[in-house]
């Protein structure tokens, strides 16, 4: 259930952020007889049924312009929960600290899971390697997960966390 809820929230955020005009929102409220006392209440009052009526999330891949469309039916097909630890797909907890590198943590986590899937063993990979070396990202000032993946592909791999440990700061300048 938690996984479905998280995906539902992501779908809502994506739709709200990508709405082309307020007239679409006004049309939705009119069609479904929605009236809210304030804009704060308005953003908190959506139900899962409302999401299903309005949402179609289109995820963009900024490296090649292609996209995939996910609908509420895709979300409903998911199990209520998955404990990836039980399957060995995740490594130990990593602390981000004050460095805004969630993009690098996300990329490394996904890569670790895929490495386990392919090779059957889990190794902690270096978030710091991406922070310092992915030139299209901005180190501890943020970045894009897709660009971090592209760096790893272009680089021919990524260091392990043991060989290139996390420092929560940029250790070098990129070109």
TrEMBL record:
<feature type="domain" description="Peptidase C1A papain C-terminal">
    <location>
        <begin position="78"/>
        <end position="175"/>
    </location>
</feature>
<dbReference type="GO" id="GO:0006508">
    <property type="term" value="P:proteolysis"/>
</dbReference>
<comment type="similarity">
    <text>Belongs to the peptidase C1 family.</text>
</comment>
<keyword id="KW-0732">Signal</keyword>
<feature type="signal peptide">
    <location>
        <begin position="1"/>
        <end position="18"/>
    </location>
</feature>
<dbReference type="InterPro" id="IPR013128">
    <property type="entry name" value="Peptidase_C1A"/>
</dbReference>
<dbReference type="InterPro" id="IPR000668">
    <property type="entry name" value="Peptidase_C1A_C"/>
</dbReference>
<dbReference type="Pfam" id="PF00112">
    <property type="entry name" value="Peptidase_C1"/>
</dbReference>
<dbReference type="GO" id="GO:0008234">
    <property type="term" value="F:cysteine-type peptidase activity"/>
</dbReference>
<dbReference type="InterPro" id="IPR038765">
    <property type="entry name" value="Papain-like_cys_pep_sf"/>
</dbReference>
<protein>
    <submittedName>
        <fullName>Cathepsin l</fullName>
    </submittedName>
</protein>
